[in-house]
Design a protein that fits this description.
Blueprint (H helix, E strand, L loop, with lengths): L1 H14 L9 E5 L2 E4 H8 L7 H25 L2 H31 L6 H10 L10 E10 L5 H10 L2 H9 L4 E5 L6 E2 H5 L7 H7 L4 E6 L3 E11 L7 H34 L8
Antiparallel strand pairs: 1-2, 3-4, 3-5, 3-7, 6-7
Helix pairs in contact: 4-10, 5-10, 6-7
Length: 279
């Protein structure tokens, strides 16, 4: 119903304009008109608020902008307007150039980075890739205390051979939560956030390679294996920084392409005699 009132409101606006003006205009500032279609685009039929109030606000905002612009045209000095016009031209030119260069670079950019390229860059820049967080690879299972498979779960999680993986996967519905992917490096703080709260001292004691431990509350037990640890300020694992290294190498290619384009456009200007330098 509100939207019906909204259309009636716009119709009344339009009908109150002089007869020689376009029929769907709802407001005028000087030679500028605001039309029904422009208001509709900004509100749309799905708007659930007070359409009349919103329409009034939109019309006032439109008028305010143009009335201020008229004042600015009259009251700003010629030098101020010239400076602002130059800023607008510069901004427009920068947008055009950036958009063109981005499209040109994207069309020629090779975004495939091989593992060898990543490894070579890592080896040459190891000093730049020390981790500022404790990292680990591990696995855990959270299960009810009374689970009849608890002993087998504990043994399988520690041993974790192919047969154990199949067994744990087959009974995964018995776990409250779990994570078996110990091939991925994660921040130790994120890993421990999934477990019951522990003291800083115990955290440091548990954060060691090939560690198994249990945490228990009144209802559940957490079985945890920490497979490998990299402590803060140590060299980050290649697997952990590989996505960052890939992006660095792609960005270096982008930069080289940009430099190449800059050189070529000057050379092209000279060849085609569209660019000349006068001595």
């Amino acid at each position: 119903m509100k939207f019906v009132y909204f259309y009636l409101f716009l119709l009344i606006y339009a009908c109150n304009l002089p007869a020689n003006e376009e029929s769907d205009a709802v407001a005028r500032v000087g030679e500028n008109y605001l039309y029904v279609s422009e208001i509709q685009d900004q509100i749309g039929p799905r708007y659930n608020g007070d359409s009349l109030l919103i329409t009034n606000r939109l019309i006032d905002d439109w008028a305010e902008q143009l009335l201020y612009l008229n004042k600015a045209e009259i009251n700003l000095s010629s030098s101020e307007k010239k400076r602002l016009d130059e800023l607008v031209r510069t901004y427009r030119n920068d947008l055009y150039v950036k958009t063109y260069k981005d499209k040109a670079i994207q069309s020629q950019l090779d975004s495939v980075v091989s593992l060898d390229q990543i490894q070579n860059y890592f080896e040459q820049n190891k000093a730049n890739f020390k981790t500022n967080k404790d990292l680990l690879r591990g696995r855990y299972v959270r299960v009810r205390n009374e689970n009849y498979n608890l002993r087998s779960i504990r043994s399988s999680l520690q041993r974790f051979n192919d047969r154990d993986k199949v067994f744990l996967d087959s009974i995964a519905l018995q776990f409250t939560t779990y994570s078996m992917n110990d091939s991925i490096w994660v921040q130790a703080s994120q890993f421990f956030n999934r477990l019951p709260s522990i003291s800083e001292k115990r955290y440091k004691n548990l954060l060691k390679n090939n560690t198994f431990f249990e945490l228990q509350d009144s209802l559940e037990v957490y079985l945890v294996v920490i497979k490998e640890v990299v402590l803060r300020n140590d060299l980050a694992p290649l697997e952990y920084v590989a996505p960052t290294l890939k992006q660095i190498l792609i960005n270096k290619r982008k930069l080289e392409l940009m430099r190449q384009f800059d050189r070529e456009i000057i050379q092209e200007g000279f060849r085609q005699k569209t660019y000349e330098v006068y001595e």
